[in-house]
Amino acid sequence: MHQRPIDVLVRSDTSIFPHPAYVIGLAADWVFDEPFDTRPIDFFAEGEWPLPVSGEQAGAALEYLVSLLDRANDAD
Question: What would the pLDDT profile of 37-50 be if each residue is shown by its tens digit?
Answer without folding.
Answer: 999 988 777 777 67
